Each structure stands twice: as C-alpha cells, then as structure tokens.
Amino acid sequence: MPVFFKATGPIGDTDTNAIPVREIGPAVGYYTQCLGFSPISKDKTTVRLKRDDVEIGLAVNGQDPEQASCWFSVGDVDTLHREYEAKGIGPGIIDEQKCDGKPFRVFFAEVPYGVCFCFTHPLDEEFA
Fold it and tell me: Could you tell me the fold of the domain covering 5-127?
C-alpha cells in the first residue's frame, strides 16, 4: 500500500513552491517516476506536483538545487523507505530525532538534482 504524504515545509529558506532545478523535463521525470508525485500544471520553467495532501513546485529560477532542502510528513516512514530503496533512490538510514521536543522517525534522501529531503513521521500518535 502506498505511503500517504500529509504535509511539507521548508528547511532553511527553501521555497517549497519553487524548489530549484536546473531543467524542468528531467526533474519532472524523477519526481513522478521515482518520488511518486503527479504533475498538476507545467510551463517551460515551472511545474506544480502533488502527492496525496502535498503540493510542491519546481522552478528553473537560478538558485542552486544543492542548497535546497525541505521535509515531508508521511504516514509510514518505514514503508516509504522500502519503496524508495526498491526504486534505487538510496535513502539514508532511518533514525529517531526530536524536533520541538517531539520524537520523530526520519530519513533523508538527496535527489540527483541536489535537493535534500527529510521524510518524517511522529512517534507520538498525538502528533501523527
């Protein structure tokens, strides 16, 4: 069963509505085929993508993709980790971390276009 994406947000000053990419075409292919997003609108330099409750934007905007990061809250980190391993994404190890005093299971993955993603799920069901 696919993992449900619940929310997203920036890490640092990344704009999740304009995540930087160098070229739209290859990036859209990766985000759809590997990360499981679906395009909802596109032009020559931008695209809007959606997976479940999450919408993000990609943009050729002159910013460095290797300086961009954001997080995704998902329904099941372990299942998503297996999904991404099977697709050859090479996600990092699953770890437990605290953010604002709340415990989370997390893993990181860097896409070939330089952007780093953090995938999280709260350990305390009160925050799920």
Answer: 2,3-Dihydroxybiphenyl 1,2-Dioxygenase; domain 1 (3.10.180)
